[in-house]
Amino acid sequence: MLGTRVPIKNVGWCLGTPGRRSTNVFGKYNLALLENKAIDNVCPHRGALFSDGQVLRDGCVQCPYHGWTYSQDGNLVNIPSSTSIPLYTADVKSYNVSKLYDFMWTSFDEQPRSCILPPHIDEFNRSDWSYVSGDTEVQGNWFKWIENACDIS
Questions:
Q1: CB neighbours (10 Å) of residue 85?
Q2: Alpha-carbon distance 138 to 69, whole Å?
Q3: SS3 100
């Protein structure tokens, strides 16, 4: 099992529980979590984190630094100091998110940016089972954490 590379694409990845503002997946995807979307967490204007910003009533997220506003699809929709959006693109990547089993899931497929759901887990739907959900960030190699969690002996 050592040395095995697990693909990041074409798999449904758990991002955390609803209510979490941001997550970092494999040190590669730094995401701000919105209601039904995840977007790259770094504003391209000055590098502030969207997760430190404000989610507006229309679901858009506003950068905390200069107030640039982005839709949940990652499109720049407003610059407070400008009457128009610049001709160059300042959009950020957006990912669809699904909620299942009290967790948020997405896929990092390039085309399309659709969510691949995790496999069906019977125990989550049985009345004679109970479960606790939550999340935490840990330091270390993600593959080793999963491998060790499976080896409870």
A1: 15
A2: 31
A3: strand
